[in-house]
Design a protein that fits this description.
The complex is a heterotetramer.
Chain A lengths: L6 H21 L3 H25 L10 H31 L13
Chain B lengths: L1 H21 L3 H21 L3 H26 L12 H24 L1 H5 L15 H7 L1 H10 L3 H22 L18
Helix pairs in contact in B: 1-2, 2-3, 6-7
Chain D lengths: L6 H6 L1 H18 L7 H31 L8 E2 L4 E2 L2 H21 L8 H20 L3 H19 L6 H32 L4 H9 L10 H18 L7 H8 L2 H26 L13 H21 L5 H25 L3 H33 L10 H4 L1 H15 L5 H14 L6 H30 L13 H19 L1 H15 L37 H9 L1
Antiparallel strand pairs in D: 1-2
Classes of the chains: A mainly alpha, B mainly alpha, C mainly alpha, D mainly alpha.
Chain lengths: ~110, ~190, ~500, ~550
C-alpha cells in the first residue's frame, strides 16, 4: 500500500524522536518527565526495528519476524519499567515531598 | 499522496514529542506523549504491522499513559502544574547534545548505502500458488507471533512473564504505604514558586 | 511452506477473504460501505441509544412501580428527542481555569472509543463494518482509551470531586480490564481466530454457541460482569456515585458535552452487549444451528461418502463464480500433508462437490480454498440469511441490555474497596481457572471432532471442574475476608488491590 | 528451523526453571505460612529456604555440566533454536552466579533491614536467574530482555530498605540512570539490527565480518551503534563517564544488595559485553584505517579514565561502602583492558579466559569486602572505615582474612588477584598490530593504578591492625558473615597458589562457549578439549610488579 515511502524516512523520524527524547532526559528535572522522555526513546527504537524488519530481509533460521518480536518485547519491558519507576518515584515522594531528581540529597552524589 | 500523509504524520508526531519535552504542565506533557504514541501506532500501520499498532495502542495508551497520569496525580499537586525548570546551561547542554546526536544520526543514515538504496519495500505476494514465510507473517501476524513465541522465543516469552510479575510485586512493595520514614517530621512540602 | 501444516483454517480464512475483498473493491462497494458507516454511525446507533435510554427509564419506572415518561408523543415515544433538544439548547459551561481543550476532548474520546468498538461487530453476514484479522485485539485496545477519557474529564474540570471520581473510575477500569480480556481467551482458543466474523462463523456452522459449555457459561458471566464494570453501570457505578462524590467525573459537564458522555455511556452498554452476543451467543445464529451442521464441517471437506464424492463446505459469505466447474481446481492437503488438486464437478447450494477417487480424510489448505473461493459478490443467499440473522442478533443484544437494566434496578452499589478486591480476588482467579478448563474442553470436544457423547462427557468433566473452581475461589475469599489482620491478607492479590486503591485515594 | 521444542533443552535449562518456581514459592511462603511472624524470623526462614534452592540448582548445574552437557560440547551447544547457549559457558557461569547469590543470600540474613522478605528473596532469586539467562543468551532479544529483568530486580532490591531515605534515593538514581542507558543501548541494537538484519549474535558477527569492507570505515551509523551499545554496557558495569549512579547506589543500598550489584550484575554484564563486543561487533574492533579507529580506541579511553578516576576518588573516601564502590569502578577499568584484549588479540579465547579469571576473583573479594561492611552496618548502623578500628587485634582470624582480601584487591602475590591482573595484562600485551602501543600504555597505567590503589586498601588494613577502637567491640559475627568472608579469602589464597585450575576451566569455557567474529578464521576444532593449552607462567621474574611490562618476552613462547 505504502511502498513509495523510502526506508530512510522512517529512520529519520525515529532518529529525530530519539534525539528529542534524549533532550528531554537531559532537561527534565521531574522524574516522571524523565520517564516520559525515556518512553519516547524506546518508541524510536521500536520504529527502527519494525522498519528494518519490513524493508530488510530475514536470514534463514531466525523466524519470519525478528524485528517485530524485538519491538513486542521492548513494549513489554517499557510497561514494566514504567510500573517500577512510578513506584520508586512514589516512594521518594513520600520521603521528600518532591519528585525532582536533583532534590534528593541524602547521598553525597 | 501516501508520502504527504507520512510527512504530515511525522511532523505532527515530532511536534508532540517536543511538546512532551517542553510542556510546563506535566499532564499536558502526558497528553502530548499519548498523541506521540498514537502517531507511532500510525507509523506501524504504514509499515503493515497492524498487530503492533494495536499492541502499541493497548499497552502504551491504555496502560503506560494511565500509569504515568497516576504517577503525576500522586506526586504533584492536583493539577499537575510543573513549576520546576532547569537552569539555562542545562538547557543549552540538552539542546546541544540532542542536536549533535541528531546530526550524527542523519549523517549515519545517509551514509549507509544499503539503507538509502531501499527506496521501495519488498513485496511478498500471497496467492494460491506462491507464498512466502514473510508474506504469511505480514498478512497473518497474530498467529505467526503466537507460533514464534511458542517455538523460537519461548524463553524470552517466559522471561517477560517473570519480568512483569517481578515488576508488579516490586512496585506494590515500594508503593505500599507504611509510615517508616526516618524523619517524617521534616517531610514538609517545599515552597515552590 | 514450513508452517502451513501448523495453521488451521481460521488463521487465514478471514484474513485472506478480507484481502481479496479489498483488492477487488469497486466504487459501488465503496458507496455501499460509506452508506453503512454513515447510516450506522450517525443515524442508527444514536437512534438505538436514544431508545435504549427511553427503555431504561420505562423499565426502571416499572421496577419502581411508576409509569415513567409518557407525556411526549404516544407512550412517550418522542421523549428522547425532547431530551436531545433540551441538551442542545442548554448552555455548556467550561469551569474557570480549566483546560478547555481537554475539557471538550474528553467526551469526544469516550464517544470515539465506543464507536470504534462497534466498528468490528458483525451484525450479520457481511455486515461487519470492517473485519479485521485481529479484531478482538483491536477492540480491547480501543476500549482501553475510555480510561484515558474518563481521567481527562476528571482532570480538566478543576474539581476535587471530579478528580476523585476520575481516579476511582480509572482504577476500576484498569482493574476490570484484566478479567474482561482473560474471559475472552477461551473464545479465541476455541475458534482459533481473533476475527469476530470467523468467531461467529465457527459458532454458526461448526461448534454451536460457545455459551453451551461450562467454561463458556463461566466465561460469559465473567465477561458480562467485568463489562458492566467497564462501562461504569450499577452496581459498579462508583465513578459517578452521587451520594459520595457529586456526579463523579462529569460533575462539571453541562449541555451537549454532558449529552456526549450520556451518549457514550449508553453506546458502550450497547457495544458490550453486542460483544457478549458475538463472542458467546453465536452472533445472529440460531441456538442449535451449529450442532445440525455436518460433523466434519470444520475440516471443510467431508469424508468421502459411498458415492466416492467429497463435499467442500464454504463459508456463507464466500461466493463462487457463476460456473465453478469450468477449469476450477482446488488444492487440498490431507492430514499427512500431501497436497492434491481436485476438480470441482458441480455445486449444491453452498457446497462444492469434488471429483475424487480415493477415500482420504481431508484438511483444506486455507490458501488455495479461499483464493479460489472468495469472490465477494454479495448475492441472494447472503441477504436472505441476513433477514433472519439481524433480528436474532438484535434480539439477543436487547435481552442483554434488559438484563443490565434489571441488575441496575435490583442491586445496591458496591463499596469501593470491595469493588477492587472483587476484581482482583474473585474475577481474576476465576478467569485464570476458566482458561484451564477451556483447554480441557478444547481437547475433549473441539480438537477431536466430538459428537454428542463426547460433549456429554466433556460437560461432566468440565462442569465439575468449573464448579470446583468457583467454590474454591469463593471459599478462599471468605476466609481472607474473615482474616482479622488487615495488613497481611493471606493472598498477594488482595495486597496489590488494596495498595492500589490505597494509593489512589490517599494520594489526593 | 524445525518447528517444535526439544525436551533436552528444558532439561539443560532446568536450574533456571527451578529458580523461577523458587522465587514464587518464597513469595507464597511469606504470604501464607509465615504471615504475621516477626520480620527477623521471616528473614531467617526465608533466607534458609532460598539458600536451599540456590544450592540445589548449583548442584544441578554441576550435574548437568558433567553428565548432560559433557566435557567437550563444542561450539554448537545451542539450545532453544540457537537463542541460548547450552554448553559449558552456560553451566559454569550459572554455577558462578549461583555461588555469588549464595554468599549474598547469607549476607542478607545478617540483619533485618526490610520487612518485605518474601519479595526481597524472590527478587534475589529472579535477578540471579536473569543473570544466568543473560550470560547464556546468544540472541540480542534474549540478551536485552534478561538485562532488563536483571536491572529491574536490582532497582527493586536497592530501594527495599524502606526505613532509610538513602535506600529509596539510591533506587531512584539507579533507576533513572539505568533506564536511560538501556534506552540508548536499545537504539544501538536497533541500528546493528538494521545493518545485519539479524538478532543472533553469531550471525551478526558473521555478516559484519563478511561484508566487502569490514570495519567501521565510513560507516557512521555503525559507529553510532557501537557508541550507544558501549554507553549501555558502560552504565551496567559503571565505567567512568557513566558511573555516577554507582557510588550512590552502593552506599544507599543495603550491604548485601550492594555486594550483589558489585559482583553478580557486573559479572553477567561483562560476559554479555564480551559476547556482544567480541562476538557480534568483533570485526569493528581493530583499527583498519586512520579514518576508522574501531571501538578499541574508544574503549581504551574509557578504561584509562575509569581506572584512574576510580582509584583517585577512592583515596578520599571515608565510607567503606563508597570506597568499595569506587574500587569496583576502578576494577571495571582493569576489566575493560581485558575486553579490549578480547577484541583485538589473536588469542581471543585465552584473553577471554584471563578476563573471566579476573572477574571471578574480583567478585569473590568484593562480596567479602561488603560482608565486612554488612557486619559494621549491623552493629554500628554506619559503615565508616573508622568503625573497623582495632578489629584485627580482637579478631585475628578476621584480620588475616581481610588482609588477604585487600592484598588480592591490590594484586600482590601470592593472592589470586595478582594472577588475575597478570594473566589479563599479559594477554593485553600479547596483541600485535596498530593497537600494540595503546595496549602497552594501558597496561602501564593499570600497573600504576594498582600501586595507587594500594594506598586506600592499606588504609583499611591500617584501621584494622594499627588503630585502637574508640567505640565498643562489635558483636561476634554469625556464620552468615563469616561464610562469605572466609570463603572469599580461602578461595583467593587457593587460586593464588593453584591459579592454573581456575584458568584452565575458564579457557575451557571460553573455547567451547564463545564464538568470535574473525576475519581470517583460524581453524577451531569443535572439541575444545584438544585445543586447551594451559599457559605455564614464569612466576619468578614477576615477583614485584615493575618488570611486568617485560613479561611478554618470556610469555610469548609459553603462550602458544
Amino acid at each position: 500500500m505504502s511502498q513509495q515511502i523510502p526506508l530512510t524516512w522512517f529512520l529519520y523520524f525515529a532518529a529525530a524522536s530519539f534525539a528529542i527524547g534524549l533532550m528531554g532526559v537531559l532537561m527534565r528535572r521531574n522524574a516522571i518527565g524523565v520517564l516520559m522522555a525515556i518512553e519516547i526513546m524506546l518508541n524510536a527504537a521500536n520504529i527502527n526495528f519494525i522498519a528494518f524488519w519490513r524493508y530488510g530481509d530475514v536470514p534463514q533460521g531466525e523466524g519470519p519476524l525478528t524485528g517485530v518480536m524485538m519491538a513486542l518485547f521492548v513494549i513489554t519491558i517499557a510497561a514494566a519499567e514504567v510500573a517500577v519507576g512510578v513506584g520508586l518515584i512514589l516512594l521518594c515522594y513520600r520521603r521528600w515531598r518532591v519528585a525532582d531528581v536533583d532534590e534528593f540529597d541524602t547521598l553525597s552524589g | 499522496m501516501i508520502q504527504a500523509l507520512f510527512i504530515a504524520l511525522s511532523a505532527f508526531g515530532l511536534l508532540m514529542a517536543l511538546g512532551t519535552v517542553f510542556a510546563r504542565n506535566l499532564v499536558n506533557a502526558a497528553l502530548f506523549l499519548v498523541a506521540f504514541f498514537f502517531v507511532v501506532a500510525c507509523q506501524f500501520v504504514l509499515l503493515e504491522a497492524e498487530f503492533m499498532a494495536a499492541i502499541q495502542v493497548l499497552i502504551y495508551i491504555g496502560a503506560v499513559a494511565v500509569l504515568l497520569m497516576f504517577g503525576i496525580m500522586l506526586t504533584r499537586n492536583i493539577q499537575g502544574d510543573e513549576t520546576t525548570i532547569v537552569s539555562r546551561q542545562w538547557r543549552l547542554l540538552g539542546v546541544g547534545v540532542a542536536g549533535s546526536v541528531l546530526i550524527v544520526l542523519f549523517l549515519g543514515i545517509n551514509g549507509f548505502k544499503p539503507w538509502t538504496d531501499l527506496g521501495v519495500r519488498p513485496e511478498f505476494p500471497v496467492t494460491a500458488e506462491t507464498t512466502t514465510e514473510r508474506g504469511q507473517a505480514i498478512i497473518a501476524m497474530t498467529p505467526t507471533v503466537g507460533r514464534e513465541m511458542m517455538t523460537r522465543y519461548v524463553v524470552p516469552f517466559e522471561l517477560a512473564g517473570l519480568l512483569l510479575t517481578a515488576a508488579l510485586v516490586g512496585a506494590v512493595v515500594l508503593a505500599q504505604y507504611d509510615n517508616t520514614d526516618e524523619k517524617t517530621a521534616s517531610a514538609e512540602p517545599p515552597q515552590v514558586s | 511452506m514450513a508452517h502451513f501444516d501448523l495453521l488451521t483454517k481460521n488463521d487465514f480464512t478471514p484474513i485472506l477473504a478480507q484481502r481479496m475483498f479489498y483488492e477487488q473493491v469497486d466504487t459501488v462497494l465503496w458507496i455501499r460501505w460509506g452508506l453503512y458507516l454513515f447510516a450506522g454511525f450517525f443515524a442508527v446507533f444514536p437512534l438505538i441509544v436514544a431508545y435504549i435510554v427511553l427503555a431504561e427509564r420505562k423499565i426502571a419506572a416499572r421496577f419502581q412501580d411508576r409509569i415513567g415518561p409518557n407525556r411526549v408523543g404516544p407512550f412517550g415515544l418522542l421523549q428522547p428527542f425532547a431530551d436531545f433538544i433540551k441538551l442542545i439548547i442548554k448552555e455548556s459551561i467550561v469551569p474557570k481555569g480549566a483546560n478547555s481543550f481537554v475539557h471538550i476532548l474528553a467526551p469526544i474520546l469516550t464517544l470515539i472509543s465506543a464507536f470504534l468498538v462497534l466498528a468490528v461487530i458483525p451484525f450479520g453476514i457481511g455486515l461487519a463494518p470492517v473485519d479485521l484479522p485481529s479484531g478482538l485485539l483491536y477492540m480491547v485496545s480501543v476500549s482501553s482509551i475510555a480510561a484515558l477519557s474518563i481521567f481527562l474529564a476528571g482532570w480538566s474540570s478543576r474539581n476535587k470531586y471530579s478528580l476523585l471520581g476520575a481516579m476511582r473510575g480509572v482504577a476500576q477500569l484498569v482493574s476490570y480490564e484484566i478479567p474482561q480480556v482473560m474471559s475472552i481467551l477461551p473464545v479465541i482458543l476455541w475458534s482459533g481466530s481473533l476475527s469476530l466474523v470467523s468467531i461467529v462463523q465457527t459458532q454458526q456452522y461448526d461448534q454451536g454457541w460457545f455459551l453451551f459449555s461450562p467454561p463458556g457459561i463461566l466465561g460469559f458471566l465473567l465477561l458480562l460482569i467485568s463489562s458492566i464494570a467497564e462501562v461504569n453501570r450499577a452496581p459498579f457505578d462508583l465513578p459517578e456515585a452521587e451520594s459520595e462524590i457529586i456526579a463523579g467525573f462529569h460533575t462539571e459537564y453541562s449541555g451537549m458535552r454532558f449529552g456526549l458522555f450520556f451518549l457514550g455511556e449508553y453506546l458502550n452498554v450497547f457495544a458490550i452487549c453486542c460483544l457478549s452476543t458475538t463472542l458467546f451467543l453465536g452472533g445472529g445464529s440460531l441456538p442449535l444451528q451449529g450442532y445440525f451442521a455436518d460433523e466434519a464441517d470444520h475440516m471443510l471437506v467431508a469424508p468421502f461418502d459411498a458415492s466416492k464424492q467429497s463435499v467442500l463446505k464454504l463459508n456463507a459469505h464466500h461466493e463462487f463464480p457463476e460456473n465453478p466447474s469450468t477449469g476450477f481446481r482446488i488444492n487440498i492437503t490431507n492430514i499427512v500433508g500431501e497436497t492434491q488438486a481436485f476438480q470441482v464437478s458441480h455445486r449444491v447450494g453452498n457446497d462444492l462437490v469434488l471429483m475424487a477417487n480415493r477415500p482420504v480424510e481431508f484438511k483444506a489448505d486455507a490458501y488455495s480454498r479461499v483464493s479460489a473461493a472468495a469472490r465477494p459478490s454479495y448475492a441472494a443467499p447472503w441477504h436472505l440469511s441476513n433477514l433472519i440473522m439481524i433480528p436474532v442478533f438484535l434480539g439477543k443484544v436487547f435481552f442483554l441490555v434488559f438484563v443490565i437494566f434489571w441488575i441496575r434496578a435490583t442491586l445496591p452499589r458496591v463499596r469501593v474497596d470491595r469493588l477492587m478486591s472483587f476484581a482482583w480476588k474473585t474475577m481474576v482467579p476465576l478467569a485464570i481457572a476458566n482458561i484451564f478448563v477451556a483447554t480441557i474442553w478444547f481437547e475433549m470436544v473441539i480438537r477431536p471432532v466430538g459428537g454428542f457423547s463426547a460433549r456429554l462427557l466433556a460437560w461432566l468433566v468440565t462442569g465439575l471442574l468449573t464448579a470446583g473452581a468457583v467454590a474454591l475461589v469463593f471459599r478462599i475469599n471468605r476466609n481472607s475476608y474473615q482474616a482479622n489482620d488487615p495488613e497481611r491478607r493471606p493472598t498477594l492479590i488482595s495486597r496489590s488491590g488494596d495498595s492500589l486503591l490505597a494509593a489512589t485515594t490517599r494520594g489526593l | 528451523m524445525g518447528s517444535g521444542l526439544i525436551i533436552k533443552d528444558f532439561l539443560i535449562f532446568s536450574p533456571v526453571i527451578i529458580l523461577t518456581v523458587w522465587g514464587l514459592a518464597s513469595l507464597l511462603l511469606d504470604l501464607t505460612i509465615l504471615a504475621g511472624q516477626e520480620s527477623s524470623a521471616r528473614n531467617r526462614s526465608l533466607g534458609l529456604f532460598t539458600l536451599l534452592g540456590l544450592v540445589g540448582s548449583l548442584i544441578l548445574c554441576q550435574y548437568l555440566a558433567f553428565d548432560v552437557i559433557g566435557p567437550a560440547p563444542g561450539k554448537d551447544a545451542r539450545i532453544f533454536f540457537g537463542t541460548l547457549n547450552g554448553g559449558l559457558l552456560y553451566s559454569q557461569f550459572a554455577s558462578l552466579v549461583l555461588l555469588f547469590a549464595i554468599l549474598v543470600c547469607c549476607l542478607s540474613m545478617v540483619w533485618s533491614f526490610t520487612t518485605h522478605w518474601g519479595e526481597y528473596y524472590a527478587m534475589l532469586v529472579w535477578s540471579a536467574l536473569s543473570m544466568i539467562v543473560l550470560v547464556a543468551s546468544e540472541d540480542l532479544l534474549t540478551l536485552f530482555l534478561s538485562l532488563e529483568t536483571m536491572t529491574i530486580c536490582l532497582y527493586l532490591m536497592t530501594a527495599m530498605e524502606k526505613t532509610k531515605r538513602r535506600s529509596a534515593e539510591a533506587g531512584l538514581k539507579y533507576f533513572v540512570y539505568g533506564s536511560v542507558s538501556s534506552a540508548l543501548f536499545l537504539f544501538g541494537l536497533s541500528l546493528v539490527y538494521g545493518q545485519t538484519g539479524s538478532t543472533s549474535i553469531e550471525s551478526i558477527g558473521r555478516i559484519l565480518s563478511t561484508t566487502e569492507k569490514p570495519g567501521l570505515s565510513g560507516n557512521v551509523a555503525g559507529g553510532v551503534a557501537v557508541l550507544l551499545i558501549m554507553v549501555g554496557f558502560g552504565f551496567k558495569i559503571s565505567a567512568v563517564p557513566f558511573h555516577q549512579w554507582a557510588p550512590d547506589a552502593y552506599e544507599g543500598a543495603p550491604a548485601p544488595v550492594a555486594a550483589w550489584l558489585a559482583s553478580g550484575s557486573k559479572l553477567a554484564s561483562l560476559v554479555a559485553m564480551v559476547k556482544v563486543m567480541g562476538g557480534a561487533l568483533g570485526s569493528w574492533a581493530v583499527t583498519t584505517s586512520p579514518t576508522s579507529p574501531g571501538w578499541v580506541g574508544l574503549l581504551a579511553l574509557i578504561s584509562a579514565a575509569t581506572m584512574t578516576y576510580g582509584n583517585f576518588t577512592a583515596l578520599s573516601q571515608t565510607n567503606l561502602k563508597r570506597l568499595l564502590a569506587y574500587s569496583s569502578i576502578s576494577h571495571a577499568g582493569y576489566m575493560l583492558v581485558g575486553v579490549i584484549a578480547v577484541g583485538i588479540s589473536e588469542r581471543r579465547e585465552e584473553a577471554a579466559a584471563a578476563l573471566f579469571f579476573y572477574l571471578v576473583i574480583y567478585g569473590l573479594t568484593t562480596i567479602s569486602g561488603f560482608a565486612l561492611a554488612a557486619w559494621i552496618d549491623r552493629d554500628r548502623g554506619s559503615e565508616n572505615v573508622d568503625d573497623l578500628n582495632g578489629l584485627g587485634r580482637r579478631h585475628p582470624y578476621i584480620g588475616v582474612a581481610v588482609c588477604v582480601l585487600m592484598l588480592s584487591m591490590i594484586g600482590i602475590p601470592p593472592t589470586a588477584g595478582f594472577f588475575g591482573k597478570l594473566y589479563m595484562f599479559m594477554e593485553a600485551l600479547n596483541v600485535g598490530g596498530a593497537d600494540r602501543v595503546t595496549m602497552i600504555g594501558l597496561v602501564a597505567l593499570g600497573l600504576f593504578n594498582s600501586v595507587v590503589s594500594a594506598f586506600y586498601y592499606i588504609r583499611i588494613l591500617k584501621a584494622i591492625f594499627l588503630r585502637d577502637s574508640d567505640k565498643g567491640d562489635l558483636r561476634s559475627m554469625g556464620p552468615e558473615i563469616a561464610l562469605p568472608l572466609f570463603v572469599g579469602s580461602v578461595l583467593t589464597i587457593f587460586f593464588g597458589f593453584r591459579p592454573a585450575t581456575l584458568l584452565e576451566d575458564m579457557e575451557h569455557i571460553s573455547m567451547s562457549g564463545l564464538t568470535f567474529a574473525q576475519k581470517a578464521d583460524p581453524d577451531k576444532s569443535p572439541n575444545a578439549a584438544a585445543v586447551i593449552t594451559p599457559v605455564i607462567l614464569p612466576i619468578k621474574p614477576i615477583a614485584n610488579q615493575q618488570p611486568a611490562v617485560s613479561t611478554p618476552a618470556q610469555a610469548k613462547p609459553a603462550g602458544n
